Amino acid sequence: MLKTSTRHTPAGPVLDVRGDLDFHTVPEFRKTLEGLSLLPGQRLVLHLAGLQFCDSSGITAFLVARNLAATAGADVALAEVPDTTLRVLRIVGLDQVFAIEPAERAGADSA
Amino acid sequence: MSPERAHPPPATTPDALEQQAAAVAPLLEDSPEDLYENAPCGYLSTLMNGTLAKVNGTLLSWLGYHREELVGRRRFADLLTIGGKLYHETHFAPLLQMQGEVHGIAMELKAKDGARLPVLVTSVVKTDAAGEPKLIRTTVTDARGRRAYEQELLRARRAAEEAHREAERSREHLHEVVAVLQRSLLPPSLPPVPGLETAAHYHTASPDHLGGDFYDLFSLGGGRWAFCLGDVCGKGPEAAAVTSLARYTLRAAAMNDADPEAVLQTLNSVLYERYAGDDPRYCTVVFGLLEAPGPDDAGFDITLAGGGHPPALLLRDDGTADFVHTPGGVLIGILPRPPLAVIHTRLEPGDTLVLYTDGLTEARTPTGRYGDERLLAHAADLAPSGAEPTVKALTDLLESFGAGLDDDTAILALGVPARAHENPTSSPC
């Protein structure tokens, strides 16, 4: 099960991700990502506090988000990443690739 | 316009009813006798001893007999096939005697020319005022249509069974193809490395899908060997194509320049160029170089480069176990030039290095994912342990996960035999 909702802020969209990011839910998640409007210089935030489970399909989805953002001239950040997912991100080295925000974004700072 | 409007409206008044009856009267049978003779089903009456007493024209025409050939001369059972006669004797007649009536029994009548006519038979015993049985009245319905329907059902069932067998054969064929391709992604056997024990295991999560895990071990000449183990994202033919590409790129790159970081950068360039865009294909890899220092030294120097792969395990001769981290390495194929972690370590006699994919640590157990901590504790319990028994123990562990293991898992172990079990001069490379 996956639930997403989008908030728009001046700095860019915040996508709230709750539930599981796995083989079954990632296609739907990709559609949501592709439907986002991103302007150059904005930052897309994936808010992951409600993420229950994330496997390699989920990691691929983060990379898709990164590529989509790059195409739009925008940036992407992961916020409030649960410990288990953060551990996986560290193993695959993606903690160096994604800006990781500890809590709700305060401003539109860059990575 | 509804179809009913095409017919005359139903009669509603007594006058109208009378008119309607007068209109259809000429169309109706002019006598009950005509109805009996030419009814759309066969009628026959037999005496209680079975002798035919009366047969209608419809049945006579079906069977090709003249009335005088049957009435008073033959019994009902004489019209049945041999199987039908037997059934009549053993079931039909006793049931009729017991119940006074039998309904819709499927039988075959034999026509005069020997042709068989499938029919449904219903018989009723007629009794006199005292309740004594006097006569058996039988109707015979032509069941050729029904027989054809039954045969069609049977044919359809056979066709469905054949289709099912065909699907099973296709599935078996798919399994064979998947198994052959899967084997092609792995070395058929690990080459012997003097002074080193090696063992590997590949767990296939599903016979229907190609997995994306791989490992390899090959000679670079001059007493140097390369080994690798990796995990391509995704499953299926697309992942398998990347797996194949990754394995052969690693081999070719290592032949050119065996420096582990250079090898992984080459693989990264190949994947990054090929799979950029909205369908990222990447892999996590550990690539290592084994060098035997010299004929007097039983150990191996190891250079290990990691691209986003879970840490290797080192089971030491002294009974301890540790992760060999390659921190900071980023998975291969997503950045133009990823940072890669390179570390140096040594395998002493009695030490075993274990590489694995995350199917092992991500396996679901009743108390959550198996995880790094439990794996490390298990390794410490095993140590000291050679390559073969370590892989055996981890294979048993994978089996113990049962349905909790839903990902492919590769394991590769490299161990230097302990001194007590090895002649120290027997391992020149």
UniProtKB/TrEMBL annotation, chain A:
GO MF, any single term: anti-sigma factor antagonist activity
InterPro entries the record matches: Anti-sigma_ant, STAS_dom, STAS_dom_sf
CDD domains registered for this protein in UniProt: STAS_anti-anti-sigma_factors (cd07043)
Residue intervals passing through the bilayer: none
Domain spans labelled STAS: 2-111
Highest rank taxon of the organism: Bacteria
Family to which this protein belongs: Belongs to the anti-sigma-factor antagonist family.
Protein name, per record: Anti-sigma factor antagonist
Species: Streptomyces lavendofoliae
From TrEMBL, chain B:
Organism: Streptomyces lavendofoliae
Signal peptide positions (record): none
Tree of life domain: Bacteria
PROSITE patterns, alphabetized: PAS, PPM_2
Keyword Membrane appears in the UniProt entry: no
Source species taxonomy: Bacteria, Bacillati, Actinomycetota, Actinomycetes, Kitasatosporales
GO molecular function, one term: phosphatase activity
Stated name of the protein: Histidine kinase
Residues spanning the membrane: none
